[in-house]
C-alpha cells in the first residue's frame, strides 16, 4: 500500500482534443496483506488466484506507460477485502476462496475492513472518474484456467462481462475474435451476477466500459503482458471510436 491507501494511480487522464479518453481500473491487482492483519493461510497462497488476479498489474502498467491509458489499481489483496464486491456481499471479507479456508477472516471486523480499504478505494475511484470524464472505462481482471474446488476447465482466452450495458463489450468481442481468440461472453461467470465496480462507477452513470477477464496463463510473463497490453490498447481504442 502507498501512504496507507488501498489504491494507486499510474498516469493521469489528460483529454486530448479529438481523441477519446480511456482509463483502466483493476480491483484485484495486488496480493499485499498489511502487517497487522493475519489471514492464517500458507504464504504460497498469496501468489495464487485466490489472492490476486495474476498478470493484471503488469498489463495495466504497460497500458498506462506505453499507451497513455491511466490506471486506478488496488494495492491490497482480495483476501483482505474484496474491492469488487458490494459492501453487504458475504464475500467482501472472504472466509473461503476456491476451497481454501481463510481462518483469519472468520469473525473479522468487517466494518473496520470496509472503512479502511473498501470505502477509500471507491471514494477515490469516484473522484478520479468524475475528474476524467472518460469516454470508456477498461476493467481488467484475470481468471484461473481451472478451478481447484470444482476441476472446472475454462477454455476461453479472454471474456467480456457486463450486466445490462453491452455497448462496448459487443465491439470488443468482435475485434478480439478477429484476432483469432476464443472469446467468452459473460464467462466464466456472468456480469449480471458479479459486476460490482462497473455497476457502481460505469452503469450507474451511463459510462461505457469493457470488463475484460483474461486467462491467467496468457499473462504470467513480461512478454505476454506486453503483448496483451498492446492488443487490448488497440482494441479499446477502436471500441471508443466505434462508440463516438
UniProtKB/TrEMBL annotation:
Q: Which organism is it from?
A: Erythrobacter litoralis
Name of one Pfam family that matches: FGase
Molecular function GO terms recorded: hydrolase activity
What are the entry keywords? Hydrolase
User: Do the record's keywords include Phosphoprotein?
Assistant: no
Keyword Cytoplasm tagged: no
Q: Where is the signal peptide?
A: none
Q: What is this protein called?
A: N-formylglutamate amidohydrolase
Instruction: State the InterPro entries in the record.
Output: N-FG_amidohydro, UCP029730
